[in-house]
Design a protein that fits this description.
- The chain is mainly α.
- The protein has 18 helices and two strands.
- Helix 4 crosses helix 9, helix 5 runs antiparallel to helix 7 and helix 8 runs antiparallel to helix 9.
- The chain is globular and about 60 Å long.
- It starts with 15 loop residues before the first helix and ends in a 15-residue tail after the last helix.
């Protein structure tokens, strides 16, 4: 294919590069989590060691694995396209939001249910509470993404309206607010306000997805943005106060990811600028864009289940002596890293493919008219589910070795409300009358 040849046909209405960035980013998240977790034996019990904490120089490697900005960028692009199309056809906010939220929460509910069952089995088997606490915190940590994404999903119509009025000033305002928050954390020492940066940083990157979709992020602007952000990041990180790691560092005064910082925002602009500058060249070489779009369907299962094989391997292969315990950073440990990743992938990929082949339940009739009451109940349901997922991400599925009753109850109520208010009334239209196709 010549450089000037047109890009291969993509599915109508989709940009395959969005799908490519999303599925690639999820793949990097998965491999990064596998590489940065090491299993050790402490007093006869398995323990997960944080490689970044044990080997501080590996903080530089996180620059290659912090790709969550791409997931928010792709989400902003895709949701702007989706809402604009639905709104133009007269669809309601409630129907659109319920449809998008179901796509996230139905597979998440399966994951939550299986994990709760695993906790019950571990309790019955007499697994020590401290081990249950640590293991089921590890399988919940990545759920932090969902509450933030659901919030941005709900705010998409309002953010799009602001975007049309303010343009690039809107993400710049989010970046400025994240910087103000970091000043408050570092100066007066008010760490609690740092949590608002989940909105300002991830929301600002989500807004850049709007700019990408509207064609505002042209190549010259991308190069200037990348250069300016690189300079900002160097000024923030090299002299301090931010660590070089783009993920959490135990004991650091300020984090770059939990909560996110202005330094992470600047790093993200560099990453986004470089990858979007390559969009035209990559799309010209995409021989099978439909396959990329099809593979994108595996993104959510990969993200949800990727820590399960790592824990299974740790629980079976290490105690059986099939994998030796090696000190973190030793020669033997480095030699085993590729083996560890390959075994995890060998377990995860067939599992995800098998899940994709399971028959999906038939679609049920969905509400065509969304009055204030159902919209309010939908908001309450998503708020309850988001609160539960945030609590699970912070404390795990078995804090102190026990199931957390309140978060699980809130999650169940939230998902039940989502499904209940989405369903069409008994006297409503049939399955083909959905406002959120």
């Amino acid at each position: 294919m010549t450089p000037d040849a047109p890009a291969p046909a993509a599915p109508p209405g989709r940009n395959p590069y969005v799908d490519l960035l999303r599925i690639t980013a999820v793949g990097f998240v998965v491999v990064g989590h596998w590489l940065l977790t090491s299993i050790s034996d402490q007093g006869g019990h398995l323990h997960g060691e944080d490689v970044v904490d044990a080997l501080p120089w590996t903080q530089w490697l996180t620059l290659f694995f912090q790709v969550m900005p791409l997931i928010f960028l792709a989400g902003g692009y895709a949701n702007a396209v989706s809402w604009s199309g639905h709104h133009a056809r007269g669809a309601s906010w409630g129907g659109w939001l319920a449809d998008r939220a179901r796509r996230l929460l139905v597979p998440t509910t399966v994951y939550v249910a299986v994990t709760v069952l695993a906790v019950v089995v571990c309790v019955a088997a007499g697994v020590p509470p401290t081990v249950r606490d640590e293991v089921f915190w590890a399988v919940a940590l990545h759920l932090w993404f969902l509450p933030m994404y659901l919030l941005l999903l709900a705010l998409t119509p309002a953010l799009l309206a602001l975007w049309r009025r303010l343009g690039l000033w809107l993400p710049l305002a989010f970046a400025a607010l994240s910087a103000v928050v970091d000043v408050g954390v570092l100066g007066p020492g008010i760490p609690v306000i740092g949590w608002s940066n989940y909105l300002w940083v991830w929301g600002g990157l989500y807004l850049l997805g709007f700019a990408w979709r509207d064609g505002i992020l042209t190549r010259p602007l991308l190069l200037w943005s990348a250069a300016a952000a690189a300079a900002l990041w160097v000024l923030l990180v090299v002299p301090g106060p931010f660590p070089v790691s783009t993920i959490g560092v135990p004991g650091a005064r300020i984090q770059n990811a939990s909560p996110p910082s202005i330094a992470l925002f600047a790093y993200s602009v560099v990453l986004i600028g470089l990858l979007l500058a390559a969009e035209d060249a990559v799309r010209r070489r995409l021989r099978h864009p439909r396959r990329v779009t099809a593979a994108n369907a595996a993104a959510m299962p990969l993200y949800l289940w990727h820590m399960a094989p790592a824990l299974a391997i740790g629980a079976i292969l290490y105690p059986a002596g099939l994998l030796p315990f090696e000190p973190v950073g030793s020669g033997g440990w480095w030699l085993l890293r590729p083996v560890w990743v390959l075994i995890c992938a060998a377990l995860l990929i067939p599992f995800v493919l098998a899940m994709a082949r399971l028959p999906h339940p038939p679609p049920y009739p969905t509400r065509t008219r969304w009055s204030t009451g159902p919209c309010l109940l939908l908001g309450v349901g998503l708020a309850a589910a988001s609160f539960a997922l945030a609590r699970l991400a912070l404390r795990g599925f078995a804090p102190d070795g026990r199931l957390p009753a309140l978060p699980l109850l809130c999650y169940a109520v939230g998902v039940a409300l989502l499904l209940a208010v989405s369903a069409a009334p008994r006297t409503g239209g049939g399955p083909g009358h959905s406002a959120s196709a």
